[in-house]
Design a protein that fits this description.
Elements: E1 4-8, H1 18-32, E2 36-42, E3 49-52, E4 58-62, E5 66-68, E6 71-72, H2 80-89, E7 94-98, H3 103-114, E8 118-123, H4 132-144, E9 150-153, H5 156-166, E10 173-175, E11 197-202, H6 211-224, E12 228-233
Parallel strand pairs: 1-2, 1-7, 2-4, 7-8, 8-9, 9-10, 11-12
Antiparallel strand pairs: 3-4, 5-6
Helix pairs in contact: 2-3
Protein name: phosphatidylinositol N-acetylglucosaminyltransferase
InterPro entries: PIGA_GPI_anchor_biosynthesis
Organism: Dreissena polymorpha (Zebra mussel)
Length: 234
């Protein structure tokens, strides 16, 4: 059976990040398998309305302004008219929300369940339990995933974290690790310095990615092992 899938998140191109790339590539893979996929997000600058990407991937950039960290203001009812119109117009079967931080993802899944549609949620990150931001996010996640049909996490540690935070049954959560195209990361042997061991780190240089730990350990490793060098990409 072919499905009509709606991917929803506050985070999508032209914004750059792992969630954005994940949504795009998963959508392309589903299209290649014969499914219909659309993406719903908020507008980014002058990019608003409907745009088309590779393979006819349709993207709705809705006129919802952001409040904090590229997320729209949580209102529940304000997003209903546009999202309901899109779900009906595109004959959507499954609404797939991405990221625990995404307001649009949670609201889209809420409206989809009220319309009798299937919902899936993918959690991309680990969160704590004690700070104010985590407490509020975890309460929202419990509400949002209470009747979500299925959840996906990118690692077994992420699954354990999500199950505890959202108080959901482990059997309703699947682990699908992020794919890596190994052929894109094969180094050129002729460029290798035989006297050096090169460590490559590719990540956003932000605190929650552990960059503070990396900054602390690099000088110590280089002091103990002069033949080690680091290449950092962001």
């Amino acid at each position: 059976m072919k499905y009509n899938v709606c991917m929803v998140s506050d985070f999508f191109f032209p914004n750059q990040g792992g969630v954005e790339s994940h949504i795009y590539h998963v959508s392309q893979c589903l299209i290649n398998r014969g499914h219909k996929v659309i993406i719903v997000t908020h507008f980014y600058g002058n990019r608003r309305g409907v745009r088309y990407l590779k393979n006819g991937l349709k993207v709705y950039y809705l006129p919802f302004p952001t409040m904090y960290n590229q997320c729209v203001l949580p209102t529940i009812l304000t997003t209903l008219p546009l999202l309901r119109n899109i779900f009906i117009r595109e004959d959507i079967h499954i609404v797939h929300g991405h990221s625990a931080f995404s307001t649009m993802a949670h609201e889209a899944m809420f409206h989809a369940r009220n319309m009798g549609l299937k919902t899936v949620f993918t959690d991309h990150s680990l969160f704590g339990f004690a700070d104010a931001s985590s407490i509020l996010t975890n309460k929202l996640l419990k509400f949002s995933l209470a009747d979500c049909h299925h959840a996906i996490c990118v690692s077994h540690t992420s699954k354990e974290n999500t199950v505890l935070r959202a108080a959901i049954k482990p059997e309703t959560v699947s682990v699908i690790p992020n794919a890596v195209e190994a052929s894109m990361f094969i180094p050129d042997p002729s460029q290798r310095d035989p006297d050096k061991i090169t460590v490559v780190v590719v990540s956003r240089l932000v605190y929650r990615k552990g960059m503070d730990l990396l900054a602390g350990i690099i000088p110590e490793i280089c002091r103990r092992h002069p033949d080690v060098q680091f290449i950092i990409g962001s």
